[in-house]
Amino acid sequence: MKKYIIILCISLFVLTSCSKWLDVKPMSEVEQSTLFQTETGFQEALNGVYATCNTSQSYGELTCGFLDYLVGNYSQNTLSGLSGSTYKPFFTYDYTNSDAISKSDMIWQQLYKSIALCNAILDNIDTKKNIFSGNNYGVIKGEALALRGYLHFDLLRLYAPSYASNPDAVAIPYITEFSLKGAPRSKVSEVLTKIITDLNAAKLLLKSSDPILSTTYVVGYPTTTKDAVNTKYTNENTGKNIFFNNRRDRLNYYAVCGTLARVSLYKQDKVTALANALEVINAKNTVNGVVVDKFPWSTKERITTSDPELKDRIFYTELIFGWYSPGLKTDLINKFENSNQGMYTSLAYFNNAFETGSGGPGGTDMRYANLYNSLSNVSGDMMLTYKYHRDASSNMYDLRLPAIRLSEMYYIAAESAFDTDPVQAWTYFNKVRFQRGITATLSGNDKNLFISELVKESRKEFFAEGQLFYLFKRLNKSINTINGTNIPASNKIFVLPIPDAELQYGSTVTQ
Known about the structure:
This protein is mainly alpha-helical. The protein contains 20 helices and 13 strands. A three-stranded antiparallel beta sheet has the order 8-10-9.
């Protein structure tokens, strides 16, 4: 029998002017004691968590991989291409296929590796509290706790029944210490309680330490002379301490609020979900003496421009948190822009999703006109997502994979408010539609209509971001695939198999 043990063969990203990489061998207790002697060592370890997440084996796959096949976004014809070949079993929900097992096991292993490093930080930080300067202790511990909760939540949403369907189902291990020992699997409800405990602790620490809370921390577009109408230029990367720059690349205070909103809605606690979503929505800045939204809506000028330097396909200013992933550029091009092996959807399905027919709102939807590109091949007329397309030599936005968006906070607020105040719920919901160019408003007391519209808008908003699978699962909604097949909601499609090694030996990551 093969014994599986925790090994952290990772690269730690050091935020220095030369952006050097430091290779770290499997982390023994001796090596931990060396790394965690200094504040810089803790910073490097925390950067290492993000480095393990910002890969094609982790959130590169979860954001732009098999999860969107599971909700029927892509044409089966794409599966003949090289990048699509390993996705074939996901089109038919065949989780027993070796390719599906390989990808599913990989995600389990990668996320638990990242959790192990969070635990290494948390196991050591309190005894070294006196070595930290300024607010660094609160930021580092807060982010480590937040990451541990965030990663466990995605594991729960992938490998266990939803809370709505079975809160007492045996789910996943919740790992809270750096150890070679296995851990028992907890119930869905128990895992959620532990996630919320970590997130609340993180929120409390970051509340008093995170620079993003300053009203002078400005989220906006990078400074340019080409866009004189936009005065909300960012100062996110101008601080003297590089470690505290670009807070939206990390699980910052508002990202923790967003995660709590997401988790609370999953647990059907709509009061807490609404409160945390509104904390993000209502956050403010002061720019040139004027109070403005902390997270401004992306401007029409930047979304619709033909200038490759300024083109904003990712809705840059609306990202509450994103995985900074410049190393995934080639992988994303192969998936979405290579006509021979790209992940694309039929023109008919695309037009139906964006409601471009007579009287539909698709004609004015900026997402429809600016985030996709047409393609004709032997399979017919197709559409490729250009959401991640960037001009390599000039585009001013770093490559980020969306993790938490402003629009999701409005959707969560709308769903959480609907039962008690449907008028306000539709106000939140219509706000996103208006910002995407849809002027027609929706209203009424019909909850089924609201959920139907929420699903439709989410399909437009989160295409190629991996979030739709979680939405369908939470709502227990059947899936209408690109070829018109209706897949009934069930755990057979919504619950990925836990790796055999975990079931046999109770370990959590790869050997």
